[in-house]
């Protein structure tokens, strides 16, 4: 196994008196997909904000390529090769595809007072890079990003990160708003990035998507690392259980089964379940 590209040691993040992340230690390796799993509010986005330079950790350390690193801003993180694609591709709907691809790094033509954004070049590169990711329907870089589908926007953002030489690519729920076909395409693009030796951190709720492309899995529960395992070490059921807070679901299933046994297979209504699960609070 290769040396970690990114290493977190005992990272904590609090907002005031609220501890959102506690003691997160993780290693991210080149050419691997790390799936970050967890229920809503578990702290996934907060962890990503720490990794992408939006927030500094309250305590704990980050290392990149074996050297200590600290990010004061998102610019710092991207200078270290960390690219983050926020949900919905993080793009601006009213920007052209070409400009969006180069935002913050605009190519120019001309010189001095005549220097201006090279629209044609930007559009051509953006279209070419999207084509390399299998997006063939987009042929005009002057079109607005708002006209792209969700999957195409993800491809634009991922293509951009790869083009500018990211070695860690962070994707926050890239498939959440997509249909099956588009989600599959985005997963293919993730595999392409992985093949290039990029370390991918994929945040997802979808266990199927995670199991399809993941090499390494980390499950967050209430801000703590509840599990950290590699492909093949856990079954789908175990992963689903971990994500759903396991015990709560098992309890609900047992309640339904008991009721069905006692009531000729009928399904209990919600108030009946509530009475059984919390007998002292009702009735
Ligand atoms: N700026 C903030 N101030 C206070 N609490 C926050 C802030 N940002 C997030 N939180 C809290 O941190 C917890 C984790 O949030 P988040 O990282 O967004 O979770 P996830 O992405 O896993 O759904 C939540 O309880 C959320 O309310
Ligand atoms: Mg989130």
Automatic annotation (TrEMBL):
Record keywords: ATP-binding, Nucleotide-binding
Domain spans labelled ABC transporter: 6-247
Pfam family of the protein (one): ABC_tran
Annotated region (Disordered), positions in chain: 259-283
Presence of keyword Transcription: no
GO MF terms held by the record: ATP binding; ATP hydrolysis activity
PROSITE patterns hit by this protein: ABC_TRANSPORTER_1 (PS00211), ABC_TRANSPORTER_2 (PS50893)
SUPFAM superfamilies attached to this UniProt entry: P-loop containing nucleoside triphosphate hydrolases
Protein name: ATP-binding cassette domain-containing protein
Protein species of origin: Antribacter soli
């Amino acid at each position: 196994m290769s040396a970690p590209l990114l290493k977190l040691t005992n990272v904590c993040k609090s907002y005031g008196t609220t501890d959102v992340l506690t003691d997160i230690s993780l290693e991210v390796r080149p050419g691997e997909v790390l799936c970050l799993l967890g229920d809503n509010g578990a702290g996934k986005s907060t962890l990503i904000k720490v990794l992408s330079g939006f927030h500094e950790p309250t305590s704990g350390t980050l290392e990149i390529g074996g050297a200590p690193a600290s990010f004061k801003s998102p610019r710092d993180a991207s200078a270290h090769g960390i690219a983050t694609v926020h949900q919905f591709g993080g793009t601006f709907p009213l920007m052209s595809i070409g400009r969006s691809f180069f935002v913050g790094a605009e190519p120019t033509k001309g010189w001095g007072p005549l220097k201006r954004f090279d629209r044609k070049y930007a559009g051509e590169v953006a279209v070419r890079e999207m084509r390399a990711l299998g997006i063939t329907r987009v042929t005009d870089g002057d079109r607005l990003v708002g006209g792209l589908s969700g999957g195409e926007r993800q491809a634009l953002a991922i293509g951009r990160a790869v083009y500018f030489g990211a070695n860690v690519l962070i994707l926050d729920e890239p498939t959440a708003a997509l249909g099956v076909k588009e989600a599959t395409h985005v997963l293919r693009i993730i595999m392409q990035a992985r093949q290039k030796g990029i370390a991918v951190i994929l945040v997802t709720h979808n266990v199927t998507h995670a199991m399809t492309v993941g090499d390494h899995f980390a499950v967050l529960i209430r801000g703590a690392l509840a599990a950290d395992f590699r492909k093949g070490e856990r079954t789908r059921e175990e992963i689903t259980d971990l994500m759903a807070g396991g015990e709560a679901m098992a309890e609900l299933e047992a309640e339904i089964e008991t009721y069905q046994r006692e009531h000729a297979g009928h399904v209990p209504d919600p108030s009946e379940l509530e009475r059984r699960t919390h007998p002292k609070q009702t009735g």
